[in-house]
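Quick one: structure for this chain?
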Amino acid sequence: MPNHTSPLHALSLNPATGQVFAEYPFEDAAALEQSLARTATGFKAWRKEPVSVRAGVLRKMAQALRNNAEAMAQMITAEMGKPIAQARAEVEKCAVTCDWYAEHGPAMLLSEKTPVEYDKARIEYLPLGPVLAIMPWNFPVWQVLRGAIPIILAGNTYVLKHAPNVMGSAYLLRDAWTEAGLPEGVFEVINVTNEGVSSAIADVRIAAVAVTGSVRAGAAIASQAGANLKKCVLELGGSDPFIVLADANLEEAVKAAVVGRFQNSGQICVAAKRIIVEESLLPAFTEKFVAAVKALKVGNPQSDDTYIGPMARYDLRDELDGQVQATLREGASLLLGGHKVEGEGNFYAPTILAGVRPGMTSFKEELFGPVASLIAARDAEHAVELANDSEFGLAGSVWTADEHKARDIASRLETGGVFINGYTASDARVPIGGIKKSGFGRELSHFGIREFCNVQTVWVDRR
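Got it. Here's what it folds into:
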């Protein structure tokens, strides 16, 4: 197994080959201080720019992303193994989001008249200051920009601490913002150790913290932010239920389950991880689902027709395999896969576990890789019970021909989002975020842009 850790460097390891192709030395305290000084100075100037100017930079950023789309996609694929077609789609999604916020975001920041005496009260949405963002590797561009775009539009500055294995993507993003005309200090990249992260959180110049990552990482960072009285937004793990009732469109439900579970090689927080199917439909669903997953092409992520590439890190593949083997020992049955792929690269065979029940490892833990768990439900009520039997609460899906029933089920699911007859997704027009151990706060839509605003009441008393 390749050694991809170093006390001195962040390493980019190509998971398709196992070879290190870039090393990025961790920055010392002096370099961190320079970044924090720049972002504090940048904030003082950026907050004064009219929102129309900030929106104009977003339009230019959309173009910069499109100008550099292929280089960014190639970097994503090289660093974390995402199939190239999906990497290109990730970059374009970011460009679309820049365009959307440039058009719709300024209205979200307008002063709001409030009905009080003499009509002289207003609610203002003002920037908080520099925001430290600690981001994961699974969507190296989208995870960053879905938060950075509204944060920057609101007049804040943004300090990115990216995952060590995708620092190349971080620096390409910094270059794109520069191409778009973003002033110095508004988008900073820091490459620091955990000690450096702690120093940044404690620094008085950092106003707030945004985290996307594991429950363990989120809890640790939120604890530090709380100790320093810093607001934070957390988007953490998930084990999303994908409920299929007996009257669902079988073909469409199977198709969505395949995409919802195996896109990005299953390395998605918001994904169809626990597939809960009503018993009367389960045999037919299982037959079609297994056949569809077997048909997915696994292999070289540089090939346009590859759907499942390597997992991003070897340690995560080992962890996933341990969870699969534990679930099998607990009594689940293996319908497909269930093993590491021998040979070059960090591949895991697309896997389907059947007969999964509450208490089993793949039911109660998040499986972050190409593994689907099939769970039988007696009826709709039992499906809701199974769905809510989780410490996570990110999102979920409900498949049924009865929209009224689906909406009723949605109202009882303990999740931040519910998708009816569709698989879970993120979109600038609607908020994303979770409850329970999936975190708190929201990204995207007007909720996301206001998360990092000072919601200020201004009341002129004319008595």
